[in-house]
Amino acid sequence: MTGHGEGDWPVELRGVTESVVTTQGPNELWNVAALGLSEPEKGGPVTATTWGRTRTWRNFSERGEGYVQFTRDPVDFAEAALSVREESDPVLDSADAWVRVGVERLDEGEDGGTQWVEWALVPEESCIERRTVPTTNRGHAAVVEATVAASRLDVPAYDREEMRSRLAYFESVVETAGSERERFAFDRVRELVDAEW
Predict the structure, then answer these.
(1) What CATH number does domain 138-193 carry, 3.40.50.620, 1.20.58.290, 3.40.50.720, 2.40.50.140?
(2) Spatial separation of the C-alpha atoms in residues 72 and 22, rounded to whole Å
(3) Which of 14, 100, 142, 148 could cross-link with 173 by S-S, CB 3.0 to 4.6 Å?
(4) How would residue 195 be classed by pLDDT, with cut points 50, 70 and 90?
(5) Nearest to 76 by CA among 119, 22, 136
């Protein structure tokens, strides 16, 4: 462990940064889910939007907090995005850094028949577990994009055939540019959505 901080984000957030969040449920276990973080605008807070009545939405509403984590592990990310995964500890072993955040409901509405809530995320405690030199791996990026397409397969607002076409393309990228871990992650994507493309 390389350092703790109070009230700070341990990484620079640009655009939408993909993360993993754990939130404590009524069973006292920590639900693991993917969460896109939007960079703050003009000194405002970091924000995130939950779509639908998910466990993250429920736990944010009831507990008012969670642990945002930054992990490079494509399997942990794929499982967070597409499965119901619960852990006894709020911080994943693969987290390079984490932030315990308080959450505040900023806005809410409906889009395409799906409820959404925008949350302000206020860092309360943070830790950098490992410092790493950034690298670019197209296979890893393809796994992340595949989880987005896979999560939209059964959403009426999206064309299923277009999502299947995207998944086939991302699979080809993983096959040519990904490591063994990315290929395993893509196998998990396929298992979790139980779909052919």
Answers:
(1) 1.20.58.290
(2) 16
(3) 142
(4) low
(5) 22
